[in-house]
């Protein structure tokens, strides 16, 4: 799910003998694939000739704006806004690459996606390269791209202010009408600015864009490394273009059967076992943290702090925290038991009038990657990306991908009350009203992923954004996949961080051989500190203006 900030994209590199461009017979598959959508799909199939002009493009590679290594190149590729009407309006996609380091060993291209929806992938070949083995970089051009509507690829903006961008809202009877107005306002502002574009800001169309990139690069197939939302994008690609998928690594996976309301709700479901694990861990270390000698005592100490903050905000590091702020911020924190213990001790000290110890540095909660001129105008005069682009792109995809969002605000109220009781940490945040309640549907039904394409799914046992059940869901519907579960693994993102799963993923990318069976492994405890988390895009962790903010 949405989980990496300003992320780059990766692909595998080129040498002299590129494979032939898409043949006319194959090109017809770039239109909607009937088996991937419901029987009610009405999108017309475009003609082969109409799509062929996009596949025959010759990108003009040049140094990327904003710097980076000399071998880091960028280009622009044109794609249709609506693949059913390829002669109509077009979009420009920003694509990047670093070439494979060995012409003799080169296999093809490795497309990269960092997550989101809304994560920028253009810089990904640069920041991910140090995390990849030399054997992988020999074989692939690393290909980054900003998905449609994101970053430098025709970025969408809804003109949202800070309060409108703050979407993680607790359910309260007193503020529910205001939250409904907020959700409707966001949907209306997005529609006013992008009404003709929004129905086409879907994962299916981004998958089609990927296939145009494949054809333009002269490849018969692509390999792929996608994180978080990128796993769903990769899964949709395998469903629509199974014959074009080579080696696919899907890291920290979205369950296709839960898009997208269910994937927000899974954050609440996954937080409860993480909280229980933390209470047991902290109780065993009561001599260190002093939060309680039993899991029950530790849990009670936390909820006492929430109750105290509801009566009067607790000031920590100059910020007044309400009980809702604490619940919002704590959801992801509890997946890292050591950091959670330190954070709760600091909160407890502040609540009792003591000066908290300095916060631990290097926390894995919200890393920010290098930005090569992405936040401001580049030297060539490329426009700055709108401040609300990630938020606007997030809602554009999440609301247009599926027609399963309830329309009745009262349904959200009931669900929020139910889920706050079931999942006290985050249940009401997950289930209360969202802008998708007032969104006009996408151009196509949701994609049903159900195939036997080979892929490797990587999953930490304790992932706050795509919990273990979510990874298992993707593995279940991709019947040709194998899954590597990192027991005790904490955090969002597996490959490239030195865990026990890295060797398996590298071997698959290098040889194409999947493990014979699903695997579990345990990263040695001395490597579990993860001082260098992957820079995946993160969802905003803030409450609306007018309420206390985390």
Concise overview:
This protein is of the alpha/beta class. The protein is 35% helix and 13% strand. α9 packs across α11 (295-311), α9 crosses α13 (337-351) and α11 crosses α13.
Structural class: alpha/beta
Beginning-to-end CA distance, first to last residue = 21 Å
Using DSSP, what is the number of strands?
Answer: 12
Instruction: Give the strand line-up of the largest sheet.
Output: 1-2-3-5-4-6-7-10-11-12
Radius of gyration, CA atoms, in whole angstroms: 23 Å
Helix percent reads: 25-40%
Helix and strand topology:
Blueprint: H1 24-27, H2 48-55, E1 62-63, E2 73-80, E3 90-98, E4 108-113, H3 124-128, H4 134-139, E5 140-145, H5 162-165, H6 176-194, H7 203-216, E6 222-227, H8 229-240, E7 245-251, H9 261-284, H10 286-289, H11 295-311, E8 314-316, E9 319-321, H12 323-333, H13 337-351, H14 389-400, H15 409-422, H16 427-431, E10 455-462, H17 468-477, E11 481-490, H18 502-511, E12 519-522
Parallel strand pairs: 4-5, 4-6, 6-7, 7-10, 10-11, 11-12
Antiparallel strand pairs: 1-2, 2-3, 3-5, 8-9
Key descriptive features of the protein:
12 strands; 13% strand; disordered N terminus
Description:
The protein is of the alpha/beta class. The protein is 35% helix and 13% strand. The chain contains 18 helices and 12 strands. It has helices at residues 24-27, 48-55, 124-128, 134-139, 162-165, 176-194, 203-216, 229-240, 261-284, 286-289, 295-311, 323-333, 337-351, 389-400, 409-422, 427-431, 468-477, 502-511, and strands spanning 62-63, 73-80, 90-98, 108-113, 140-145, 222-227, 245-251, 314-316, 319-321, 455-462, 481-490, 519-522. Strands 1-2-3-5-4-6-7-10-11-12 form a 10-stranded mixed beta sheet, sandwiched between helices. A two-stranded antiparallel sheet has the order 8-9. Strand 10, helix 17 (468-477) and strand 11 form a beta-alpha-beta unit. Helix 7 (203-216) packs across helix 8 (229-240), helix 9 (261-284) packs across helix 13 and helix 11 packs antiparallel against helix 12. It is globular. Residues 1-44, 362-381, 526-532 and 538-550 have low confidence and may be disordered.
